[in-house]
Amino acid sequence: MELITPGFGLIIWQLLVFIALMFILTKYAWKPILNAVKSREAAIEDALHAADKAREDMKNLQADNAKLIEEARKEREKIVSAAQSAANKVKEDAKAEAQLITDKMIADAQASIEAEKRAALAEVKNQVAEFSVEIAEMVLRKELSSPQAQKELVDSYMADLKTN
Amino acid sequence: MNATKFFSLRWVTACMLVFFTMFTAASPALASGGGSEEEFSAKDLIFHHILDTHEWHFFDGPYGTLYLPVIVYSQEGGLEVFSSSNFYNDHHEVVPYQGYIYDHGHITHEQYGHVYDFSITKNVAAMFISFALLLFVFLSSARSYKKRGNSPPKGIAAFFEPLILFIRDDIVVPNIGKKDADKFMPYHLTLFFFIWFNNLLGLLPGAANVTGNIAVTVTLAIITLIITHVYAKKPYWSHIFNPPVPMALKPMMIPIEVVGIFTKPFSLTVRLFANITAGHIMILVLLSFAFIFKSVAVGALSAVVATAMNFLELLVAFIQAYVFTLLSSIFIGQAMEEAHH
């Protein structure tokens, strides 16, 4: 049964060859290859992580941008509304002032018109009084030109006095 | 899975042998057909091919054989080195040389009797070739890695990298664990590629049957055994010498566990040896049909079937290398387990 009887010499050679093979390959092949594979895997992993991070950053950046835009929009709205309200206020104020001025002018005008009117009326009254006096003078001169008329007047006064 | 493979190969071989015996027995023409010519013996042919020899026979004729160096040692005779061609005379008959007697691959001495035979036999020579091939392939791969840095591998390295990663990610890491995987990768890689390369080289015409030799497989199994026990942790030893069974059963269990230490390498040894040898025997049996029946038709058919078998053997070459490596990593991993499950 030579087939299943291990040969002594072959065992020794096999040991030598296998151990030599293992040491040489370990030092010059397996370690460099496994290290290279490992470093490549690490590089790939790093690259994937970096890509993920970049994507994340991008997303954050986009979110930031959106936020900024939103803020800017709000700011603008605020400014616009502030400006609008300011403008409105200015307009209101101007309107109010204008109203005031107008009212005052109207009131002044009215007052001056009133004063003019009164002055005019007073003058008219004075004139009328003057005219009346003049007319009365003229009438009196004419009426009392006769002694008859003078007598009659005195009589009437007298009558009035009497009744009083 | 491996068991089925193992048995199916053995089964097919057995069927072939039965078939072949039936035919030889049933045909008296064949039995008497030899006449004065040298009788063809399939058994001799097959054993000549699968056993180790001291010369490398490629083809018949004056230049078809490479005589390999014989290295023998005995206390009386000391170390002697000479060519194995000295064992043959001009008529190619085996003759003794300087008292050394060569008998079917065994060397003894007329006076000293047993001698240690360290000859560069066919298997040793084939092993040297695989050694050189493995060094060439993997050293040049390693060089290509150095040159290419982190860029993907190319050429020979690109071919072997998936296998190296397969051994790391599917054999060593799952069985031994990520933490210790780096320490055991070199052994498993060397083991896998040594077995695979020798399995494949053994399929070449005229090549040696290295991994189908029990001395080779037993050596590999013993290396696994040693590594397993060097790195074995406490639970492994306590499981053997203090098995978790009632006190009364311990005297029975401990011997069983101790035997269990040796059944693992034994199964490794026999599995690889038997699978590869069975494959070789099967191909040789198929090819022998042509000479047994002395028929061209049978020869054509058996050549076709033997070719198919050769393709199957390519697969077996890989599977057996894988299984040996896988089981080695499982044995080492089990011995290294920290806590008991």
TrEMBL record, chain A:
Entry keywords, A to Z: ATP synthesis, Cell membrane, CF(0), Coiled coil, Hydrogen ion transport, Ion transport, Membrane, Transmembrane, Transmembrane helix, Transport
Xref: CDD domains: ATP-synt_Fo_b (cd06503)
GO cellular component, one term: plasma membrane
Coiled coil: 44-89
Membrane topology recorded in Swiss-Prot or TrEMBL: Single-pass membrane protein
Compartments where located: Cell membrane; Endomembrane system
GO molecular function list: proton-transporting ATP synthase activity, rotational mechanism; proton-transporting ATPase activity, rotational mechanism
Transmembrane regions: 12-30
Primary localization: membrane
UniProt entry tagged with the keyword Coiled coil: yes
Role, per record: F(1)F(0) ATP synthase produces ATP from ADP in the presence of a proton or sodium gradient. F-type ATPases consist of two structural domains, F(1) containing the extramembraneous catalytic core and F(0) containing the membrane proton channel, linked together by a central stalk and a peripheral stalk. During catalysis, ATP synthesis in the catalytic domain of F(1) is coupled via a rotary mechanism of the central stalk subunits to proton translocation.
HAMAP family: ATP_synth_b_bprime
Quaternary structure annotation from Swiss-Prot or TrEMBL: F-type ATPases have 2 components, F(1) - the catalytic core - and F(0) - the membrane proton channel. F(1) has five subunits: alpha(3), beta(3), gamma(1), delta(1), epsilon(1). F(0) has four main subunits: a(1), b(2) and c(10-14). The alpha and beta chains form an alternating ring which encloses part of the gamma chain. F(1) is attached to F(0) by a central stalk formed by the gamma and epsilon chains, while a peripheral stalk is formed by the delta and b chains. F-type ATPases have 2 components, F(1) - the catalytic core - and F(0) - the membrane proton channel. F(1) has five subunits: alpha(3), beta(3), gamma(1), delta(1), epsilon(1). F(0) has three main subunits: a(1), b(2) and c(10-14). The alpha and beta chains form an alternating ring which encloses part of the gamma chain. F(1) is attached to F(0) by a central stalk formed by the gamma and epsilon chains, while a peripheral stalk is formed by the delta and b chains.
Family per record: Belongs to the ATPase B chain family.
Name recorded for this polypeptide: ATP synthase subunit b
Lineage: Bacteria, Pseudomonadati, Bacteroidota, Cytophagia, Cytophagales
Protein's gene: atpF
